[in-house]
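Human:
I keep going back and forth on a fold encoding question. Comparing notes only helps if you start from a blank page. Show me how you would write down a chain together with its backbone fold. Write it directly below this note and I will take it from there.

Assistant:
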Amino acid sequence: MEVGEEFGPWLSRQLRLANKTQAELAEELGLTRAAVSAWITKRSVPRPTVMGEIAKALGTDLGTVHTRTTDTQAGLPVTWYHRPGYQDGGRDGGNAAAFAFDADVQVLARETCQNSLDERLVENGRPVRVRYTLHELTGERLEAFRAAVLWDELRPHYSAVSESAADQKVGRVVDAGVRDMFEKGRLVLLRIDDYNASGLTGDDYGDGKFAAVVRRQLESLKSGRGAGGSYGLGKATLWATSALGMVLINSTLSVPHEGRTERRVIGRLELPWRSVDGAPYAGPAWLGRPDPETHNAEVVRSWWADEETIERLYLTRDNDEPGTSFLIVGAHDVASLEQGGSDSDDEEGNADDGIRDIRVMHRRLVEALGRDFWAAMTGGGSRLPLLETSVRTYRNGEIVVEEETVDPMDTQPSRSRALRAFYEGTTVDRLTEAGQVALRAVPLRLPLSGGRSGTLGTHRGVLLVTEAEDRDGVPNQVHSLRGNRMTIKKSTVHGLPLGVTQFQAVLLVGHAAGESAPFAGEAEEFLRAAEPPEHDRWGQTEELTLRWSHSAHNRISRLTTEVNSAVRELVVRPKRPGAEESAKLRKKLTVPRRTAAPKRGTGPAVPELVELDAEIGENREWRITAEVRLPRADELPAMTPVVLLDVRSGGRPRLDWAELVAVEGCEVEGGVLHFEQGARKAVFRGATDPTSHPVRTELTRLALELRAGSGE
C-alpha cells in the first residue's frame, strides 16, 4: 500500500490546481486564513469534522482527502501543451537525437535495457526486471484509447504535419502512422516496464532524472561509473520507434517527490514544426496537468494519476516496486524488413503490414535481448544476475504469444557457461576436455589523461575461452563487455589454422573483471569514453581525444592484439615433433596430383585442392577440413567434393557424406560447391557416413577429389 502524502503539501498543491487561494478556502470553511496557513506549513492538521468540508470545497470525496494518494480532479484538467514556435522564426524538422538510431525494436531493446541496468537499485542485490509488452488494438479498444490520449486535441496538429509531409522526413513517418491507424483500424502499443530501478526521480523542471528524460536532450544523469550510457541519446529510441512520435510514461519512484511515489504520469509528443490555425509550434508537446505557477498556466507538469486513468492509458504496473513504464504509441519496426523479418508483404510490395507485425517484433525483441544481454542475465557462485527480461504479445487483451522469459543458456550457451565458470572459480589453464573453460589475463595499459605521455597503470582484463555450440551463432568470436555486462564489442579471431576446434570467447574488462581487479574503475571510465552513441565498439572518439590524447585508442588496439594472441595460444594445438597419431592420419589422406586427377571442367579456371586436415570422430567417421585455391576468373564451375577409399588396385569405393558445410568463400547446395565471385580461396568441412565404410575406419586410407558439376 502506498503511504499518503503529508496533508500540508498535498493541500497546497490542490489549491494551486483548483486556482484557489488560502483566503478563499478559509472563507468557504468559515475559518481564519491563519488556520489554513497552519495546515499548509504542517504546524497543525484539520479536525476530522473539518475534513468533509475540505473535500466539498475541493470538489472531491472524503476518502481522497484522508488517503491523499492522488490529486483531486477539480481545477485545471489534464491536457496537451504544445511548445510555441521560436520568436526568431527558427524551425525544427524533428528531434535530431532520434536520427542517431533506426526505427528498430532490436536497437530499442539494447538502449532501453541498458538504461534499466544503469538505474538498477543495487542495495538489495536483486536484478532489475525488464518486460516488453506488445499490444495491438482494434475496434472499440482503439477508440477508447484514442479518447484517453485526447486525440481530438491532437488531430489538428497531426493534420498540419501531414500537409507538409512531403518536405519533412519525420512528417512522412507520422503521416504513414496516422493513415495506418485510421485506414487499417489498428494501433500497436509497445510498453517497456522495469522493476527494481530508481524511477524518474526529481523535480519536473530542475536537475534530476525526470527532467533529463522528459524535458531535455543530450543530458545523461546515470547512477554510477559503470553505466552503459553517456551521451543522453538512448531515450531518443523510444520516440524513434513510435510512428506517431508519442510516448506515455508512468513512474514509481524510489525517492518520494511531493510526498508521493506511485503513478507519476506524463506524456511527450515529438512532431516537427507546424502551423495550426495560424499559430506556429516548435515541435514537442507534453500531456499533463497545467501548472498554475507558470505563465498563463499553460505549461503542463506530471500529475499523480488515479488507477482508472492508468488503466485507460495501458500503463498499469504489476506492483509498487520502483521503476518506470514507457508506452510507445504506434510502434513500428522498419529494420525487420531489411532482414526479411516479415512474411506479410503482399504482391504489390506493401511493407506497411510488415513493420507492424507483432509476432515478428516479438521474435526480434527476444533475439536482441539474448544476444546483447546474455552476460547480464548470467549468474554463478556468489554473483547474482543483474537482469531478467521477458517479452509477451497481446491483441485486444487476448494472448497472441505467451510471455517468453529470455534464458542466456538457450541463446548463448557456450558464453554463459564460460562466465558461470569464472564466477564459480572452475576455470582451467588450458583446454583438454570438452566443456572446459580456459582463463587468461590480458593487459590493458591505461594512458595518462590530459595528453601526457606515459602509463597510468595496467588493468588486467579476463579472457575466457570455451568450445562453441551450434546455438551460439557465429563461431570463433570474442564478446567484450565491461561493468554493466552488456555486450559492447564483437570481433572474430582471424588467421587460425584449418581444423582448429570452434570456440567462443568472452573478454571481461573494467568492473566486469572483478571489483578487485587493478585499475578497474579507471578502465571502466576509459573504455566508456571510447564508445560511440551506439555503444557497440571501442575506438577513437572525440571524448577520448579531448580527455586523453589523439593516440589513446592505440591502447585498445594493443589490447585486441593481446586478446587474439591469447586465444590462439589456447585453441591451436602446438605442433609436436614425432607426434605419431598426427603422422598416421596424414599418411592416410591423399590429394590427387594434377597428373592423376580426373578430368576437370574445361578452361583454365579450375579450382584446386591445396590443403587438407582430417581426424577420426567419436562415431568412427572421417572428419575433413579442406582448402581450395580459386583462380582469377569471371565465372568458376561448380564442383563436387568426392571422398574415396584409397586402395592399391581396382576401383576406389566411394563413401557417402553425412555432413558437408561451407566455411568460407563458397556455398553448399545438394552436395555441390558453388564458389563466391572474387574469392581467392574457399574452405569447407565434411564428415563421412560410417555406415558407408566397407571396413573399419582405422584401417582405411582416403583420397579426396573435386569433380566438375554433380561429380558423377
Remarks:
- Residues 254 and 397 are 30 Å apart (CA to CA).
- Residues 223-232, 341-349, 593-603 have pLDDT under 50 and may be disordered.
- The first strand starts at residue 79 and ends at 84.
- The longest helix spans residues 553-571.
